[in-house]
Amino acid sequence: MQASDTDAPQWPMIIGGKKVEAQSGKRFDIINPATGLAYCSVPEGDAADIDIAVDAAKKGFDIWSKMSALQRASILMKAADILQERLADFVDAEVLQTGRPIREMRAQLARTPEWYSYFASVARTYESKVHPFGGDHVNYGRRLALGVVGLVTPWNHPLLILTKKLAPALAAGNAVVVKPSEVAPITPLMLADVFSEAGLPEGVYNVVTGFGAGAGAALTAHRDIAKIDLTGGTETGRKVAALAGERLIPFSGELGGKASVIVFDDVSVDRAAAATLFASFVAAGQTCVQGARLLVHESIHDAVLEKLIARANALVVGAPDDESTQMGPVVSDRQLATVEKYVAIGKDEGARLVAGGERLSGEGRDGGYFYAPTIFADVSNDMRIAQEEIFGPVVCVMKFSTEAEAVALANGTDFGLAASVWSSNIARAKRVAEDIEAGIVWINDHHRIDPSSPWGGFKDSGIGKENGIVCYEGYTRMQSIVLNTSEEPFDWFAEDGKQKRYS
Ligand code: NDP
Q1: Which atom of ligand 1 is nearest to the CA of 183?
Q2: What is the spatial distance between Cα 441 and Cα 455, in angstroms, rounded to a whole number?
Q3: Active-site annotation holds for 40
Q4: What is the pTM (predicted TM-score) of this model?
Q5: What range(s) does the Aldehyde dehydrogenase domain occupy (predicted)?
Q6: Residue 8 CA to its chain's centroid (Å)
Q7: Phi, psi of 354 (to 5 degrees)
Q8: How far apart are CA 218 and CA 221, in angstroms?
Q9: Which residue in 265, 267, 322, 364 has its CB near the most CB atoms, within 10 A?
C-alpha cells in the first residue's frame, strides 16, 4: 500500500509562502520506522522546483535583509513563542518520522525555541568593530547578509539540526531554501506555519522536499545560492563542498563522526556504564557524536564491560510513542541493513560480540526496524567497526593502560567531531581533552549542546561551526568601510616635497 494512494495526509511543500505540489506532480511516501508502513506522502521536488524556490527566496531576501535587526529579532522571538506552544505537535511528528522515543524527543525539542531567541538576541546586540586604522581615517566593518542560503539537512534530528542552521541564517537577514532529508521532512514543513504566523515575509523560508540526487544536487549547484550549509555524511559533504568551491561560495559541513568515550580508572563502574549508555544508545546510536568507541582503563575494563552489558540488555526497546520505551527502531530499512552489515563485519574481524547483534521483533515491534543494543569487546583500533561510521546502536569497547595510549587511540580515526573524557582528576581530564583532535570535547559529560556553544568537526568530520556568534558571523559577509576625515588636500603626483603615504 502506498500512502500517496490513500487518504493519508499528503503534505505540500513550501515555496514563496504558498503550499505547493512539485512541478512534476510526483509524490513519495514517508515511512514510520516503528511499523515499516507508509503514513503520509510529500512532493518529489527536483531542479524545476528548486529554480522556483530560489527565485521566491530572492524576493523574500529583498524584504527581509532590509528590515532592521530589531524587526528581525522580534519576528524570531515570536516564532520561538509559537514553536513553544506547539511543541507537543512537533514532538509527535518527530516520533513518527524518526522512530525516536517520545521521552527523547520531548527532551530534545523542548530546547529548540531557544535557538530562535538566542540568535534574535545576537542580531539585536551584535556590535561592529572599529579597526585601529590610524591617522585621519576611521575604519569600520559592516556585517551584511549573504543572500539566499541553501540548507541541506539529515534525518536523525530533523527539527534541531534545521533549527541550528535556520535561526542564525534568518537572524543575519538571509532567505533560505531547505532540502530536508527524504526520510524525515515533516517537521521542516510544519515550521512554515510557525514562521508565517510570526510575521516572516513570504519567500524567506522555502522547503523543497525530494531526494539528494534530485532536489539536493540542484540546490547545491544553483548559481544564485550564496552559501551552502549541509549536515550529512562525509562523502555527501565532499561532493557539495566541491560544488561550492567551483563557485567560490562559503560551505559549512557538519559531517560524520566516530566519537570516543574515554574512561579513566578513577571513575566508578556505575558512572562509566551510565555515561556509555547515554553516549552510545540515545537515538539508537544515530547521532553524529554517538559514543561509538568506549576506551576504558584496563584496571576497570572488565567490571565496566560487565555492567554495561547488563544495562544494555535491560534497555526497553519498543514502540516510540510508549512512555516507557527507552530505545526505538533505527530510521529505515537501509539503516537497518547497514547495522546488520557492520555487525557481520565485526564478527568476521574477530571482535567479541557480547550483547545484542540481532534484529528484534515481537511485542509490538513486528514490521519495524528494531535492533538490539549491541556491544563488541576485544576490538582493535584497525578494525573497520572501530573506524567506519555505523550510525546505529553499536559500541566498540577497547582498553588502554596509559594516558598517552588513550589519546593515541582517540585520535586514531579519520573523524574528529567529538569525544568525552571521564575522570575525577580534572587536571588530567583537561590535559587529555586538549590533546584530542576533535571539534567538541566534553569532560564528564556527553551530547550536551547549547545555542551559544560552537559545534563542528575537525578532520573528515567537517568544516565550519554551528551555534554561537562564530556561526552568526558565518552567515554574513564583512564590508570594510574606510572613511577619510581629513579636509587636507591630497595629491599623490604633486611634486611638493611632502612625504606621501597610502594611509
Ligand atoms: P546523507 O549525507 O545521506 O544526507 C544528508 C542530506 O544531504 C539529505 O538531505 C540528503 O538527501 C542530501 N544529499 C544526499 N546526496 C546529496 C547530493 N549529492 N547533493 C546534495 N544533497 C545531497 O546523510 P544522512 O541523512 O544519512 O544523515 C546521516 C549522516 O549525517 C551521518 O554521516 C552523520 O554523521 C551526519 N550527521 C552529522 C552531524 C554533525 O553535526 N556533524 C549531525 C547529524 C548527522 P536524501 O535524504 O534524499 O538522501
Answers
A1: 46
A2: 10
A3: no
A4: 0.96
A5: 20-481
A6: 29
A7: -115, -5
A8: 5
A9: 267
